[in-house]
Design brief:
The structure holds two protein chains of two kinds.
Chain A (H helix, E strand, L loop, with lengths): L3 E2 L4 E5 L4 E3 L2 E2 L6 E8 L6 E7 L7 E2 L2 E6 L4 E6 L8 E9 L11 E2 L3 E6 L1
Chain B lengths: L4 E3 L2 E4 L5 E6 L6 E7 L6 E7 L2 E4 L8 E4 L6 E5 L8 E8 L7 E2 L3 E5 L1
Parallel strand pairs in B: 2-11
Antiparallel strand pairs in B: 1-3, 3-8, 4-5, 4-9, 5-6, 7-8, 9-10, 9-11
């Protein structure tokens, strides 16, 4: 089973609208971290937001917020008031802090969502 | 301050050649990670260093892939006898600790002909 699932390969959104990018995860660890990264066409992965599994409040960073629903194992990214510069690939990633398998020290990424903001 | 830098940004190799990809992490970052990103996919973990120690190399796809970080700062990913399936973007990331946020470099796009 995939550890990170992003079900939206692509999304078109009108400028200034809010957008929600979906992410579900699968882990048996009690302690883990969830990340969202933005990858514009230039290729660099830009860190957006982090949520720890024990954090009781949803993380927020400027226009970005993470809708963390632990029981449902979902960590959706919400971008408020979208801008043209938000057009990019968005990746959800998880770090498992236990020893549940190989690559436990690295991040596991989803396949990404290609977001296009239309004027 | 300066972010993670990688060189070269682009590399074209003939099948069978050896290549070396360099990563300069953010100064003071203890942890360093290498990832491989195939076209249209998310990055996949290759290997992890804490200072000069390679603590996890479970993601390296074959024994043709070798990584080192001899002085605990700059790291080199070496691929011997490159194959076409090695064509990908190779991303380096660093963090203050193993569990801290990872900050990525711009990547090296490797094309094997």
């Amino acid at each position: 089973a995939q550890k990170i699932t992003q079900t939206q390969p692509g999304m078109f959104v009108q400028e200034k609208e809010a957008v929600t990018l979906d992410c579900t995860y699968d882990t048996s660890d009690q302690s883990y971290g969830l990340f969202w990264y933005k990858q514009p066409s230039s290729g660099e992965m830009i860190f957006l937001i982090y949520q720890g599994s024990y954090d009781e409040q949803n993380a927020t960073e400027g226009r970005y917020s993470l809708n963390f629903q632990k029981a449902r194992k979902s960590a959706n990214l919400v971008i408020s008031a979208s801008q043209l510069g938000d057009s990019a690939m968005y990746f959800c990633a998880m770090r498992e802090n236990g020893y549940s398998g190989g690559g436990a020290d690295g991040l596991t990424f989803g396949k990404g969502t290609h977001l296009i903001i239309q004027p | 301050g300066a972010g993670v830098s990688q060189s070269p940004r682009y590399k074209v190799a003939k099948r069978g050649q050896d290549v070396a990809l360099r990563c300069d992490p953010i100064s003071g970052h203890v942890s360093l990670f290498w990832y491989q990103q195939a076209l249209g996919q998310g990055p996949e973990f290759l290997t992890y260093f804490q200072n000069e120690a390679q603590l996890d190399k479970s993601g390296l796809p074959s024994d043709r892939f070798f990584a080192e970080r001899p002085e605990g700062s700059v790291s080199t990913l070496k691929i011997q006898r490159t194959q076409q399936e090695d064509s990908a973007v190779y991303l380096c990331a660093s963090g203050t600790t193993a569990t801290d946020t990872q900050y990525f470099g711009p990547g090296t796009r490797l094309t094997v002909l």
